[in-house]
């Protein structure tokens, strides 16, 4: 395998590994932009992965899986909203609850229904999202040197939710930046009192943002179980929801930068997998764990203000109390 | 936490509200049991018999409760300073590494072990506490001096600790020639005495269970935390900073110093998990020994209202659920012990995030404030 091909393969797995991160990061962005801190991205993706795998198995349709995944995730998101918005509860506490609830419920139900320690039966055929070949991918590979290979390996050949995920980044950036709705969402995260004074419902906007957050986590979780893997495994999100949270902070709560951060963290993951057990000249056996810990360490360093500065939306984390 | 919307008498606030939310959480779990086609009353009976129906069951229950006392206290102490320490898992992991390093050092000193073996266990326990404290001090320092939110940094540090543990156990302190990521067995002098052996000379015959002297340490920690929080100058400073950092600063208390100290104490308490598991039961450090106890500690602290008495009772409840759940899953394979995680999650939601709802419910029942 020549160098170009190696690079193409690594970039391809970078994209694959980034998709759940991208979905969850966009989800976190919506919630936090509206002033609702969400550390329950992990749990929502996990419950979505479980619901999607079960629905896809029962119905034999991957799209039905996506629907179920989104429903389950939105339900948890609304629960978070109920606690955080309606009852002005502690948003961190509620997020922890969502994560634990999802981790427990998925395994309890999965084990009760299938008796395989929480795993769901393997999916195949139409129950799983297949790889979509973009037009001319094969032709470009043979006729266009270099770029053709990249097009075929890296850009073409992903599952439908992967392309949806990229569309969601575009939609998130556009909606938040260029529409009235987006402006209101951002306003409610910076200065909810002003939004309230303008006669717009703070709770309504926050619920909308939280529901969108659930939808996006649903997409990410579904991708994990029904496209990347062929079924649900306990703890299959493996901290991706938290890496996405890190990506949002790293990107200073901006959609395109968050996409970049997710791709960077995906690349680190891809490189770590590639270097597993590989001995490099001068370094020796690469400590893969160091690469895996890098996203978390980078976020800590960033948060500490050693490089750049992280400025979250002003009202994020604080419940809105109407003045009386 | 958010400001109290309804006024309740103290006994209702401290005892009734947690009880009601715990009952509601168990009710939800019962509904899940119904949902998977089992009889919740039968399941409850099996669970209680498994946890409390025999001396062996009680031993296991108290052994699990030991873990929850430590992790619950860790969360509670940070709560009093207004800090939310989600890093119990990571701090316990590093505490375990600290204990393992101390054991490795002690193993290399056979002379010391044979001459002053009685000092070995305290050294290992202190090493665990120091490891946990140091690892919690980092987010405390970052919060106090650099303004990074302790919630985010402790989450991130959990993953860093996990990665570090994998690397160390595989490459540095792991058992050579073993496929399992675990350390060699600790020297016999550092191990904590099992309760059944401790009490045997007194004529008390107990079945062999993992319950060990770490349980006594946990009880001691409950008393120590009560003394610390309500009977010392430092505890007063911690509570003041937790209630209002600006007022504390005005009163001459340094919120930065209190933040760092409270986090370090919190981490040292989380280290108790490593003491019970590594020094008390497994007698070596194994990967992922924290097994989610750190997160359940959040539920314990919330349900216990941050008070040692409450934490002790909540830890006991989760001990019953853990041990009973294990027995239950023997008889009813469809109900796995992950049900406890569900209950923990629902309890965190009810006793923590939906506290306002439950306070209002209780107020309504008591005829104060009313509904709506």
TrEMBL record, chain A:
Keyword tags: Cell membrane, Membrane, Transmembrane, Transmembrane helix
Membrane among keywords: yes
Transmembrane portions of the chain: 6-29, 64-85, 92-114, 155-176, 207-226, 232-251, 258-278, 290-308
Keyword Cell membrane: yes
Membrane topology (UniProt): Multi-pass membrane protein
Localization: Cell membrane
Protein name from the UniProt record: ABC transporter permease
Species per Swiss-Prot/TrEMBL record: Bosea minatitlanensis
Phylogenetic placement of the source organism: Bacteria, Pseudomonadati, Pseudomonadota, Alphaproteobacteria, Hyphomicrobiales
From TrEMBL, chain B:
Chain ranges passing through the membrane: 15-34, 119-138, 150-169, 211-229, 250-273, 285-302, 309-326, 338-358
Membrane topology designation: Multi-pass membrane protein
Origin organism lineage: Bacteria, Pseudomonadati, Pseudomonadota, Alphaproteobacteria, Hyphomicrobiales
Localization of this protein: Cell membrane
Main location: membrane
Keywords from the named record: Cell membrane, Membrane, Transmembrane, Transmembrane helix
The protein's name in its UniProt record: ABC transporter permease
Pfam families in UniProt: BPD_transp_2
Organism: Bosea minatitlanensis
């Amino acid at each position: 395998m020549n160098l170009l091909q190696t690079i193409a393969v690594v970039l391809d797995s970078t994209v694959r590994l980034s998709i759940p991160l991208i979905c969850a990061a966009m989800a976190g962005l919506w919630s936090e932009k509206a002033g609702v801190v969400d550390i329950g991205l992990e749990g929502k993706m996990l419950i979505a992965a479980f619901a999607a795998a079960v629905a896809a198995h029962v119905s034999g349709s991957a799209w039905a899986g996506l629907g179920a995944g989104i429903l389950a995730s939105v339900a948890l998101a609304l629960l978070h909203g109920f606690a955080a918005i309606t009852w002005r509860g502690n948003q961190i506490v509620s997020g922890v609850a969502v994560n634990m609830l999802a981790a427990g419920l998925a395994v309890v139900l999965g084990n009760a229904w299938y008796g395989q320690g929480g795993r769901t039966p393997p999916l195949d055929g139409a129950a799983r999202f297949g790889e979509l070949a973009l037009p001319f991918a094969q032709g470009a590979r043979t006729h266009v040197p270099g770029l053709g290979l990249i097009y075929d390996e890296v850009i073409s050949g992903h599952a439908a939710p992967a392309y949806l995920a990229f569309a969601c980044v575009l939609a998130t950036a556009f909606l938040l930046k260029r529409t009235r709705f987006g402006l209101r969402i951002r306003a409610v995260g910076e200065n909810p009192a002003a939004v309230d004074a303008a006669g717009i419902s703070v709770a309504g906007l926050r619920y909308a943002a939280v529901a969108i957050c659930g939808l996006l986590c649903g997409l990410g979780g579904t991708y994990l179980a029904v496209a990347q893997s062929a079924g649900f495994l306990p703890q299959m999100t493996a901290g991706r929801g938290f890496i996405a949270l890190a990506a949002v902070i790293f990107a200073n709560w901006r959609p395109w930068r968050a996409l970049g951060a997710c791709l960077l963290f995906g690349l680190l993951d891809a490189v770590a997998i590639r270097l597993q057990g590989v001995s490099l000249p001068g370094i020796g056996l690469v400590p893969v764990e160091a690469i895996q810990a890098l996203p978390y360490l980078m976020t800590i360093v960033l948060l500490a203000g050693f490089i750049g500065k992280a400025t979250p939306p002003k009202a994020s984390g604080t419940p809105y109390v109407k003045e009386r | 936490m958010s400001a109290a919307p309804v006024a309740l008498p103290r006994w209702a606030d401290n005892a009734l509200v947690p009880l009601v939310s715990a009952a509601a959480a168990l009710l939800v779990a019962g509904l899940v049991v119904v949902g998977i086609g089992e009889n919740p009353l039968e399941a409850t009976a099996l669970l209680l018999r498994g946890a409390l129906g025999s001396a062996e069951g009680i031993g296991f229950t108290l052994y699990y409760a030991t873990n929850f006392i430590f992790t619950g206290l860790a969360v509670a102490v940070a709560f009093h300073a207004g800090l939310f320490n989600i890093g119990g898992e990571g701090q316990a992991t590093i505490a375990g590494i600290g204990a393992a390093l101390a054991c490795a050092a002690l193993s290399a000193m056979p002379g010391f072990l044979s001459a002053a073996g009685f000092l070995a266990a305290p050294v290992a326990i202190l090493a665990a506490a120091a490891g946990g404290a140091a690892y919690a001090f980092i987010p405390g320092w970052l919060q106090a001096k650099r303004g990074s939110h302790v919630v985010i940094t402790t989450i991130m540090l959990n993953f860093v600790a996990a990665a570090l543990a994998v690397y160390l156990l595989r490459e540095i302190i792991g058992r050579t020639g073993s496929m399992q990521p675990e350390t060699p067995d600790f020297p016999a002098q550092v191990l904590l005495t099992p309760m059944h052996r401790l009490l045997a000379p007194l004529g008390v015959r107990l079945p062999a269970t993992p319950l060990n002297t770490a349980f006594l340490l946990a009880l001691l920690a409950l008393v120590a935390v009560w003394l610390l929080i309500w009977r010392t100058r430092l505890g007063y400073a911690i509570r003041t900073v937790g209630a209002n950092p600006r007022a504390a600063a005005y009163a001459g208390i340094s919120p930065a110093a209190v933040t760092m100290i409270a986090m370090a104490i919190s981490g040292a308490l989380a280290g108790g998990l490593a003491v019970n598991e590594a020094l008390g039961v497994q007698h070596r450090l194994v990967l992922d020994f924290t097994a989610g106890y750190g997160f359940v500690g959040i539920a314990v602290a919330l349900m216990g209202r941050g008070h040692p008495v409450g934490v002790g009772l909540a830890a006991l409840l989760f001990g019953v659920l853990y041990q009973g759940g294990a027995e239950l899953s023997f008889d009813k394979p469809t109900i796995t012990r992950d049900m406890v995680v569900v209950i923990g999650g629902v309890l965190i939601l009810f006793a923590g995030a939906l506290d306002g709802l439950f306070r209002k419910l209780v107020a309504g029942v008591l005829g104060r404030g009313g509904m709506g």
